[in-house]
């Protein structure tokens, strides 16, 4: 069973993306490098609550 999580940019704190986490990944926070349309560049996005 997967859980829906929201990803936020580390630089501007804009919440841009949603993704799913599996039951095995629930203990760790996601850190994914994605394009932020607000900043206009690739930045690290982290899981938010």
UniProtKB/TrEMBL annotation:
The keyword Protein transport does not apply. The keyword Ribonucleoprotein applies. One of its GO terms (molecular function) is structural constituent of ribosome. One of its GO terms (cellular component) is cytoplasm. Keywords: Ribonucleoprotein, Ribosomal protein. GO terms for biological process: translation. InterPro entries: Ribosomal_bL33, Ribosomal_bL33_sf, Ribosomal_zn-bd. Pfam families: Ribosomal_L33 (PF00471). Belongs to the bacterial ribosomal protein bL33 family. PANTHER family: 50S RIBOSOMAL PROTEIN L33, CHLOROPLASTIC, LARGE RIBOSOMAL SUBUNIT PROTEIN BL33B. This is Large ribosomal subunit protein bL33. It comes from Evansella caseinilytica. The gene is rpmG.
